[in-house]
Amino acid sequence: MARRRKVYEGKAKILYEGPEPGTLVQYFKDDATAFNNEKKGQITGKGVLNNRISEFLMLRLSDAGIPTHFVRRLNMREQLIWEVEIIPVEVIVRNVAAGSICKRLGIVEGTPLPRSIVEFCYKSDDLGDPLVSEEHITAFGWATPPEIDDMMSMALRINDILYGLFVGIGIRLVDFKIEFGRLYAEEDVRTVLADEISPDSCRLWDVKSNKKLDKDRFRRDLGGVAEAYQEVARRLGILPEGGPADMKGPSVMQ
């Protein structure tokens, strides 16, 4: 489709004005970042894979009754989405100890948690997305108590759906980060799932080997980043053995 006015550019995606009022075009880049943008690189084909994977998962969640901003995929790297007002709170759901919770609480990575834990972070790259409580969220007006309830209940429901889906293809959903937005329709306002769900925003481990199939391979210089993303797409049944047409072979540049 013809390129439109750029609305916003983030670390992994660009938003353009959409073809109709109230819509945006979300473009997935190959750029990769870690540690609050301190580490940067490029993974050939990542944008294509994340577009397809996020489309697949958003549709599955929508079928299960989770409201999302996703409308439809436009091409290999772009999807049409509803324009929403992003709530500046990232929601993290953890099933297994990994990443920052291990450092904060001294838990050994890979330890199963007694139950799924939901955490909130203030969405701010400059501050390093600090962990916050519901008190902070309501006191500073980032979200209302009903919106927090919506985000919490949807996050746990999303976890149930995705956990079962991934276990069925031999992948353990260790944790994931999601964002929500306010979708305005006439006088109605709904809290909907926004952004993306992909190996960029999830920790995904092979059930048998615990091999990491997510962005931790980039964060920790483990290599095989693009191959891991492709493996997730293949297991989901959305990537042919030959790979996407515009992928000329996986490579990582730092």
How is this structure best described in words?
With 254 residues, the protein is of the alpha+beta class. The chain folds into two domains: 6-84 and 222-253, 2-Layer Sandwich (Phosphorylase Kinase, domain 1), CATH 3.30.200.20; 86-206, ATP-grasp fold, B domain (D-amino Acid Aminotransferase, Chain A, domain 1, 2-Layer Sandwich), CATH 3.30.470.20. It is built from six helices and 15 strands. The chain has helices spanning 46-63, 100-105, 134-139, 145-167, 216-219, 225-236, and strands at 6-9, 13-17, 23-28, 31-34, 39-43, 70-73, 78-82, 85-86, 89-96, 112-122, 131-132, 171-185, 188-194, 202-206, 252-253. The strands form three sheets. Strands 8, 9, 10, 11, 12, 13 and 14 form a seven-stranded antiparallel beta sheet that branches. Strands 1-2-3-7-6 form a five-stranded antiparallel beta sheet. It has a three-stranded antiparallel beta sheet with strand order 4-5-15, with no helix packed on it. Strand 12 (171-185) and strand 13 (188-194) form a beta hairpin. Helix 1 (46-63) packs parallel to helix 6. The chain is globular.
Layout of helices and strands:
Layout: E1 6-9, E2 13-17, E3 23-28, E4 31-34, E5 39-43, H1 46-63, E6 70-73, E7 78-82, E8 85-86, E9 89-96, H2 100-105, E10 112-122, E11 131-132, H3 134-139, H4 145-167, E12 171-185, E13 188-194, E14 202-206, H5 216-219, H6 225-236, E15 252-253
Antiparallel strand pairs: 1-2, 2-3, 3-7, 4-5, 5-15, 6-7, 8-12, 9-10, 9-12, 10-11, 12-13, 12-14
